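Sample A.
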Amino acid sequence: MDARLRISALLTASTLALTLAGCGEDDTSAEDPTPAGSTSSPTADSTSSDEPDPADPSATGSPDEGGETTVPVYFAGETPQGVRLYREFRRVDGDPFTAAAELLTTGDALDPDYRSLWPGGTFASVEAQDDAIVATLADEAWTERGDLSANGARLAAQQLVYTLQGVAQERLPVRVVDSSGTPAPLFGLEGDLTAAAPLEVLALVSVSGPEEGATVADSFTAAGVASSFEATVPWEVRDSGGKVVVDGFATAEGWMDKLYPWASEVDVSGLEPGTYTFVAMTDDPSGGEGFGPTEDSKTITVE
């Protein structure tokens, strides 16, 4: 076995030990080492990679001149490791915590490949306090697990934790309370909710830009985060029939231990105007013997 395949085998074994494999539409099969509902604080290494991408100037969380705020919202999507979370940056009006939570709970994603694990409902309020982000339940509908599996409930809780911590730009725990301000369970999970390690709940590659439905001309900068073999993030532009018409790769700032930012210039000046799909993926050194590459795709229009 050559060195590349030996490394691939080690990575596959490591991934099997760490990942939450999907068990149905809203499910994952393995236990989280740092499950939602834990009162322990995440380490810096387990969360620092999920700060806004340095290559993405919109990932600031500060209101722009029009009064809108850019917030990260985490939605669920399919990956070779099962259901994982993908980040989508959205511009919202009004209170960013409330707006981001509403996008999450309603599943109002721009990307049709994304969805929410949450059943219908809404929070009465969401606000950052000194020691926690406090989400107040509108009723008791989300206190019990309902139709969610145990692992599906944990991943749904991670949607909320990652989203609200991203808005706050601080790793505060998320505290769910009832209308009287008394701590309440979320989907049966008791206690303050903290972030699980990114490699356990997030997709191994995601695209922050271009956003779904973007219009581009000549060239554009694609960017996102990934944990991919030897920091290589292959990408493709595919036409409406799925044919690869442009391809290349980005080099992320690191790999294996967490998600790292990546960015690449994509030249589409030679393409006819029309609708295309930009796809970023993880490198697959196993040649199809392992899980296969994780992908994130965005529909774009070339002028």
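Sample B, a different protein:
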Amino acid sequence: MKLVLTGAAGRLGSYLREPLAAMCDALISTDIVKDIGTLYPGETYIRADLADMAQIAPVLEGADMVIHFGAIVDEKPFEELLGPNFVGSYNIWEAGYKAGVKRIVYASSIHAVGMHLKTDGIGVDAEHRPDTFYGLAKCFTEDLGRMYWDKRGMESVHLRILSCAQVNNARALGTWLSYDDLIQLVTRAIDTPSVGFTIAYGVSNNDRAPVNNAKASFLGYRPKDNAEYLAAQVLAEAPPVDVTDPGEICLGGPFAKVDLGQSGMAHLNVIDDRKET
């Protein structure tokens, strides 16, 4: 099996490279940086821009599946996201279709449904309610994946990741996705025999998880980690909740509050603990 990983230089990509290399005959990792450090056995790095079909199409030749994690991972003006997050997704699906790729596993996001309330308890079939242009790109790509399945029989699994980062705020007690659970989720999205078009939430087994993954249970994803052990410490340090603040009551957190085009990540204390090689 030959796999392609986009966004290999990113924080989440850094944790996926080793397990993906171990489960296939050849892993092609790609990003726009010059290099990604020491390569794992069976891994090759190819520098390519997602927004340039001429660069990305050759990377997908001969691939069985693509794990598509490449994108700008924050809210930006639409024009800045258009290339990597919108056109880049189209290029992956269209180039993948022409190359005979069986399946694409996509890093979608809770921000595709970020304006739903935490108390709604939504499932994987909730309607799109993007909180930003960034979330809109996730909606676009989910719909793109559905269309390519309906019209061309190309499978895809869209992982609506909540918060794959260290737990250092009250919201993360429910939204945390550990790196181990991320790896399990991606692995299940790859090794499940048939997926059609599937949406699944990327969240650990948190007591306070605000979403329901029941309709994606056929993937066999059974998260093992739970952020509750950090609850006492995190809540003791957390400020009082303002129940009129969209950033507090909506699934998108700060992304639900910021103006369109303004950074949501600037309001989150995300620690860059990427895995070094």
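Observation for Sample B: The beta strands are 2-6, 26-31, 43-47, 65-68, 103-109, 155-161, 197-202.
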